[in-house]
Amino acid sequence: MYKVMMFLKRRADVSFAEFRHHYETSHAVLGQKYLGHLLQSYTRNYNADCAQERNVDTSASGAFDGPLCPYDCVTEWVLADEGAFAEAVRILSDPQVAEVFREDERHFLDQSATRSMQCEISDTVK
Prior knowledge:
4 strands; 4 helices; 4-stranded antiparallel beta sheet; alpha+beta; single chain
């Protein structure tokens, strides 16, 4: 199993509800269309503070003793292996496909804030 996580932040002029709606009804649909055959799972984890439209102070978290997450969503892709990820990268590198995703992202994402991480999975619960 191979996991990739993406940390996403909405544009400043987009409400959390608009961000989530666009992601679920447009961007995730594109992900399924172009990459669904490679994904074992495609999970979107929305920031509960943003969902409640709370005024999130990212400088201190209180109970968790560190800054709160400034991202609106953490997306997880689970793929069979690194080869499947390489194929996803190949597909997303096609100029026509890349432009489809970039154009969609312009509607809801702060593209400059997007971060991704390829993960080594370690699970202590079986």
